[in-house]
Structure formats: structure tokens, C-alpha cells
Write a structure and sequence with these properties.
The complex is a heterodimer of chains A (114) and B (113).
Chain A: E1 9-13, E2 18-23, E3 31-38, E4 45-50, E5 55-56, E6 61-64, E7 70-75, E8 84-92, E9 108-113
Parallel strand pairs in A: 1-9
Antiparallel strand pairs in A: 2-7, 3-4, 3-8, 5-6, 6-7, 8-9
Chain B: E1 5-7, E2 10-13, E3 19-24, E4 31-37, E5 44-50, E6 53-57, E7 65-68, E8 75-79, E9 88-95, E10 103-104, E11 108-112
Parallel strand pairs in B: 2-11
Antiparallel strand pairs in B: 1-3, 3-8, 4-5, 4-9, 5-6, 7-8, 9-10, 9-11
Classes of the chains: A mainly beta (114), B mainly beta (113).
Chain lengths: 114, 113
């Protein structure tokens, strides 16, 4: 699976959009970009995933660049409860091997401030 | 759907003792994963099951660790002869298939004294 690079930490004002970047320059054609977050002392929580197109759900939007070498997770109106570590993960969907296993990095610690 | 359940939530044990953790995945989820997380680090993959078959084990999973998933339902993770370095949060996750999101439990926090 391709590796990802994320900033160690970010701050965001409550009510503003939080834009979390992720670089995955070695991503291959069959690899998806997944985002999870982990609130303190809880298990990771799925947010969103995509392959090529931008995606949106009730939690967030995922913007993937045309060359797929980077992506941005957008929380449109951050709240204090969005304070967490956010993980960007690239996963292969090929059969066999480690396909589907989540390989976490250190993620980005997002602090939403009042 | 009651989510992924892990028991116990906390476990304190003396070095050298054996411990066993249990994970009950979301019903009908075929894939089940075990992860370990130490302070300040992201979760590290240990092993995963497709139904009852253990398909992959990380090099982190030493011979003191063993995981089972009898009948493809709940899973257990046993650590024999615990060491202080085994102190960590042990997370379980399940998913319906490879292309769907994984749901994590709250974890079992192990402290080896």
C-alpha cells in the first residue's frame, strides 16, 4: 500500500471549515483514499472514502486531485466535537495479500477552538 | 446493529501472566481485524480473519500472541507470558467485505505491571 504524508497538527476555529491535507504521491490506480478519525480514548471512526471523484456525505467532503497524488478532507463547519486525530489511509482493493487492511500513520491532530 | 463490542475494557495484569481479550463483531461482517495502539501512535495492524480463516499476521504478532475466530463469529486474542511492552490499547474492527468501511470497537486497554 502507498504511504501517506499528513501535517502533525492543525488548529481550526469553531464554525469554520477545517481543511486537512494528505499527500499520497505513490498511489496506484486500484488504491482508494480512506479517512478515519479517532477521538480521544475511542476507537477510530470511518469518515469517507473515494477513488477518483470528489465525494460528500453527512460528515465531510473529500477532494481528490486529478492526478490522485493528494487529497483534502473538508469538515464544512467544525465543532468542538470534531477535535480528534484524522488519519488518511490508502488501501489496495486487489484480491489477496493485504488488500483492505488499514495501515495507519500518525495522522493529523485537529484542535477545534472556540 | 449494536456495533463492535470488546471485553474487557480494561485489564491490569502482572508480568508473566496470560490474558485473553474478546471481540464481538457486527453480525454478518465477514472480516475481523485486530490492531494494537500505543500512546501517541496510530493503530498498528496485527492480524485479520475472513470468516474463520486467519489470512494474515503482522510481524508484530510474536509467538506469544494467538488469535482465533471459531465459527467465524466472535474472536479472541490471547497474549501469553505478558511483558511490560505489551501494554497498549488493543482494538478490534469488523467489515462486511474488503471494499466497505471498517467499524471499530472501543478497545481493551492492557496494562502490564
Amino acid at each position: 500500500d502507498a504511504k501517506t504524508t499528513q501535517p502533525t497538527s492543525m488548529d481550526c476555529a469553531e464554525g469554520r471549515a477545517a481543511n486537512l491535507p494528505c499527500n499520497h504521491s505513490t498511489i496506484s490506480g486500484n488504491e482508494y483514499v480512506y479517512w478515519y478519525r479517532q477521538i480521544h480514548s475511542q476507537g477510530p471512526q470511518y469518515i469517507i472514502h473515494g477513488l477518483k471523484n470528489n465525494e460528500t456525505n453527512e460528515m465531510a467532503s473529500l477532494i481528490i486531485t486529478e492526478d490522485r497524488k493528494s487529497s483534502t478532507l473538508i469538515l464544512p463547519h467544525a465543532t468542538l466535537r470534531d477535535t480528534a486525530v484524522y488519519y488518511c489511509i490508502v488501501i489496495s482493493m486487489n484480491y489477496g495479500g493485504s488488500q483492505g487492511n488499514l495501515i495507519f500513520g500518525k495522522g493529523t491532530k485537529l484542535s477545534v477552538k472556540p | 446493529d449494536t456495533g463492535v463490542s470488546q471485553n474487557p475494557r480494561h485489564k491490569i495484569t502482572k508480568r508473566g501472566q496470560n490474558v485473553t481479550f474478546r471481540c464481538d463483531p457486527i453480525s454478518e461482517h465477514n472480516r475481523l481485524y485486530w490492531y494494537r495502539q500505543t500512546l501517541g501512535q496510530g493503530p498498528e495492524f496485527l492480524t485479520y480473519f475472513q470468516n474463520e480463516a486467519q489470512l494474515e499476521k503482522s510481524r508484530l504478532l510474536s509467538d506469544r500472541f494467538s488469535a482465533e475466530r471459531p465459527k467465524g463469529s466472535f474472536s479472541t486474542l490471547e497474549i501469553q507470558r505478558t511483558e511490560q511492552g505489551d501494554s497498549a490499547m488493543y482494538l478490534c474492527a469488523s467489515s462486511l467485505k474488503v471494499s466497505t468501511e471498517a467499524f471499530f470497537g472501543q478497545g481493551t486497554r492492557l496494562t502490564v505491571v
